[in-house]
Amino acid sequence: MADAFRSALWILGLSSPQTVVSPDVTVPAGRRIRVWSFETGDHIADLEGVGADLQIGFDIFGPAAASFTVPYGMITRSLLEPGGVAALVEVDYRELGVPEVWLGAVTGVGVASGRGARRVSLEGPASWLDSESAIVPARERVNAPAGQILGRAVRTHPIDLKVDVPADMGGSAALAGFELAGQSVWGLASELATITGDEPRFTARPGAGRLALSWESAFAPMDLSPVCTLTEKVCTWTYEAAVQTREAMQVAGASWDVGARARGVAVRSETGRVLGRRAALAAVVSEAAALSLVGAAGTEVDVTSASAVVLRARITTELRRWITPRFPIVIRIPWDTRDGRELWPLCTVGALLRVRFDDDYGPFGDAIVRIQTAAFQLGSGRVAELGCELWEAL
Hints:
Blueprint: H1 2-12, E1 32-36, E2 43-46, E3 55-59, E4 62-71, H2 77-80, E5 88-92, E6 102-111, E7 117-123, H3 126-129, E8 139-144, H4 146-155, E9 163-164, E10 175-181, H5 185-196, E11 199-205, E12 210-216, E13 229-230, E14 236-239, H6 277-281, H7 287-291, H8 308-322, E15 329-334, H9 338-343, E16 352-355, E17 367-377, E18 383-393
Parallel strand pairs: 9-12, 13-16
Antiparallel strand pairs: 1-2, 1-5, 3-4, 3-17, 4-7, 5-6, 6-7, 8-10, 11-12, 14-15, 15-18, 16-17, 17-18
Helix pairs in contact: 4-5
């Protein structure tokens, strides 16, 4: 009972001081690079004269990596490491159509390939959220939805992690007895995402030098309407030649019931139409519907999962095992065309795109893909490179 009471206090935020969430900041789209002090949160400077090799990247968690060059004399140690702590760098190129702002920390400064310049390397929030200073101090078992567990860990951390947490963080079904055992905040986010199949998101807040945390449930209803349709007229594309054929694609599904008949059913089929991750993630169907698949060629039934939480973890495991590789496809959209400039603002990680490519022997003749990574070359030869996976073949 005492453990349950302490767990409730931890989730409600009564066991340690709350971090005040900063007010939202609305900043017009721009073309600028700002430097922020991590320790004080102050805006230090705007960088000018950034070289033609500026590039930023995002993954499913948020800002991933970035780099650029600047002339000698334009940067100093006190600028990039004020007080001996790596500065935060905000890259806001929304004026060019980059859909969101990038924010990360300086991880290195080296000599660029050409003379008279230095290359600055940056990493997204993993650079500080996966550090010793971001270890979750609590050591206990908690009962709560995954999003609440992560949000509470960030909100009550003894140092300001530069992450703002909404009051309504949720997630999938509550986890019972989840153990907080010295994980870093980033490690905790990754662990919870692995268990639930959900996706935590760290989004840079324009003009704030901070991130906003959100939690996307993989099992929540979602708008499956693609934001646009891509053809060879507006982009180039490639995918690995060693992907599985239509006949070899696998699909995982599951269902559960309540009460004495609680059970899980996982089904995979050796044959059938091409199904992407949407089919597997959305195959949370009634028990009768799942059992109707039994008896088809190559099906297997697993009745060992007695709860939705365990079953979701098994779905994710089966998904990774049987739908691998997941038809990885790389789409490149140049900026210097009218179509490119219109498409760039739509290329957010997690967005769905419809593709109609000349792909007679693969799945991309008419399909929906989901953006998993997005990299933007913002200097010369501007191009967006999207790493996608098959979401649904049409």
